[in-house]
Design a protein that fits this description.
The complex is a heterodimer of chains A (96) and B (443). Chain A contains three helices and four strands. Chain A is an alpha+beta fold and 96 residues long. Chain A has a single domain, classed as 2-Layer Sandwich (Alpha-Beta Plaits), CATH 3.30.70. Chain A has a four-stranded antiparallel β-sheet with strand order 1-2-4-3. The longest helix of chain A is centred in the middle third of the chain and has 10 residues. With 443 residues, chain B is an alpha+beta fold. Chain B folds into two domains: 250 residues, no CATH class; 122 residues, Alpha-Beta Plaits (2-Layer Sandwich), CATH 3.30.70. In chain B, 32% of the residues lie in helices and 27% in strands. In chain B, the strands form three sheets. Chain B has a ten-stranded mixed β-sheet with strand order 12-13-9-8-1-2-3-7-4-19, sandwiched between helices. In chain B, strands 5, 6, 15, 16, 17 and 18 form a six-stranded antiparallel β-sheet that branches. In chain B, strands 10-11-14 form a three-stranded antiparallel β-sheet, with helices on one face. In chain B, a hairpin with a 2-residue loop joins strand 12 and strand 13. Chain B is elongated, with a radius of gyration of 25 Å. At the A-B interface, strand 1, strand 2, strand 3 and strand 4 of A face helix 10, strand 15, strand 16 and strand 18 of B.
């Protein structure tokens, strides 16, 4: 099963000027429990090539949340995504 | 029981008048609305321009303000004019003044200034009072000196003071979203943990409801042991899931929310369905900070931008485009030196994800030549030369000798204008409340 089929919300967004935060809200407990084995902190560190990833499990709402520093501030000359709203794209087809 | 009405998630994007009237008829103790953010990038703070223009802002503000004054309940606005600098506040106040004049309204306004001058910030830096925010680059004197506007996100203290002084309308500069909604309930003695948690959710209007919308209203009321959320619009409902999920939104940490005045801990928060459209929430903890800390935001002028948009459709040219672009960049540097920043944005290839892109399918590239330089004319000139070099570039194996690219527009060069970048987003570990001047005006 792909993550895009298991999640009812899969989004990224700026959290302030310097951070990206990704929310993965699963459709149910089963998918959440299955996914969080593979989608651990290491997985996100590797995917986003960032060794300082903040990783949270929100068990009450079957949600994983990940936050990390951007390479450059939102809206800087080299930025491609001022709202940080596309950082979830590499996650869509991840097999869980 | 104290009832708050969140007019909408952000002033200027069209509110729902029916929802507003319905909520007002039920009776509310105050109205709040957030009018700004840092989301849309550095331009607004840097330039002092509002994001929602005069007409858009006025049409969201006029009727609710008239209603609030008629019912004699406070109307509290934060991040007025979008980024909350003095320039934003004065542009926003022009609208307030026009509404007052055209409707013959009489009321008291408190304006809370949040702009800091460069000397103040330099002094704070030299005294070691400015800290990095979660690993971002250290602030330098150069960045402070280059900033056109610097604001602090003000906390709740000045909002409370404004209400104590009897303001009918509070126009806050850059403020934390929650402070807008926390001030009145705190002044009335409600439990701080309930107040801050509710304030943090309702600041986005009906974005925490189902279906979600930032352009619709939300009611929140605080009792002794819990608070309740309900959208006045019967088409929407608040559920335990929707309210809980909303606390994740735009926060780096889902369990800990830091405010200038303290920290909100959400691990033990409980969300229960109260009735079909109402959720009941309790259990968060609030720890007041002995000394408030503040987030400061700054933006600097980074020059002028000219862009040219063109399509690349030739399949062979697409395969060698990176080499072509490298050479064109080199030619531009040889000719003009280093006084410009040139970005090639290749939409269809990696324009969005950059080096993270993993999909190699492509048949067409939307190419943007993006040039930023100190002088407007120089940015235009570099963009123009780069564009024309690309148009005629004689890459190896080229058989189509007309033009290499498709221009949708004539002229191809588009002067975008002034460019700003964020210069600071840092934490000040000193009480800045004395800098946030409270200005009182009566209409």
């Amino acid at each position: 099963m792909k993550l895009k089929e298991a999640a009812k919300v899969l989004r990224s967004k700026n959290a302030g000027v310097w951070h990206i935060t990704i929310d993965i809200i699963f459709k149910n407990k089963e998918f959440y429990e299955r996914a969080k084995v593979k989608l651990n902190k290491d997985f996100f560190c590797k995917l986003f090539e960032n060794d300082r990833v903040y990783y949270f499990k929100c068990n009450a709402i079957n949600t994983l949340k990940v936050s990390f520093l951007r390479d450059s501030a939102a809206g800087s000359l080299s930025d491609t995504d001022c709202l940080g709203a596309n950082f979830y794209i590499p996650l869509l087809d991840v097999e869980i | 029981m104290l009832k708050a009405l969140s007019l909408m998630g952000q002033l200027g994007y069209g509110y729902n008048r029916d929802s507003f009237i319905k909520a007002m008829n039920e009776g509310v103790d105050f109205i709040g609305v957030d009018a700004g953010s840092i989301d849309s990038g550095p331009y607004f703070l840097g330039s002092g321009n509002m994001k929602a223009n005069y007409d858009a802002t006025r049409s969201d503000l006029e009727f609710p303000l008239i209603s609030a004054i008629a019912k004699n309940i406070p109307f509290i606005i934060g991040s007025a004019g979008y980024a909350g600098s003095d320039e934003h506040l004065s542009k926003f106040m022009e609208i307030v003044e026009d509404i007052a004049k055209d409707n013959g309204l009489h009321f008291k306004v408190a304006i809370i200034h949040s702009e800091l001058d460069r000397d103040t910030v330099l002094n704070l830096l030299r005294r070691g009072k400015i800290k990095n925010y979660e690993g971002n680059p250290t602030l330098t004197e150069k960045e402070i000196n280059n900033s056109t506007h610097i604001v602090a996100q003000i906390g709740v203290e000045r909002f409370i003071e404004a209400l104590e002084k009897g303001a009918d309308l509070v126009v806050g500069g850059r403020a934390t979203d929650a402070s807008i909604y926390a001030a009145y309930p705190l002044l009335k003695g409600c439990d701080p943990a309930l107040v801050w948690h509710m304030a943090k959710i309702i600041e986005c209007g009906a974005l925490c409801a189902k279906p979600a919308s930032p352009s619709d209203a939300l009611l929140g009321w605080i009792d002794y042991d819990a608070f309740y959320l309900k959208p006045p619009n019967e088409f929407r409902k608040c559920t335990a899931d929707s309210a809980m999920a909303h606390t994740l939104y735009e926060n780096a940490n889902p369990f800990v929310i830091k405010e200038p005045d303290g920290t909100l801990f959400l691990e033990d928060a409980r969300y229960e369905q109260f009735d079909e459209r109402t959720v009941k929430v309790y259990g968060a903890k609030w720890k007041e900070r002995r000394k408030p800390t503040f987030k400061i935001e700054g933006a600097k002028h980074s020059g002028f931008r000219t862009i040219a948009i063109m399509g690349v459709r030739n399949p062979y040219m697409i395969t060698v485009l990176d080499d072509i672009l490298n050479d064109v960049r080199q030619q531009a540097e040889n000719r003009f030196g280093k006084g410009f920043v040139l970005n090639f944005r290749q939409y269809g290839k990696n324009g969005v994800l950059g080096s993270m892109e993993f999909d190699s399918n492509l048949h067409e590239i939307g190419l943007i030549v993006d040039v930023v330089a100190d002088e407007r004319a120089f940015a235009h000139k570099v963009c123009s030369v780069v564009k024309s070099t690309l148009q005629h570039y004689d890459y190896r194996g080229r058989i189509a000798t007309g033009a290499n690219v498709a221009f949708p527009y004539s002229p191809a060069e588009i002067d975008v204008g002034e460019v700003y970048e964020f210069s600071m987003y840092h934490i000040v570990e000193e009480n800045l409340n004395n800098y946030f001047r409270l200005e009182e005006i009566e209409f």
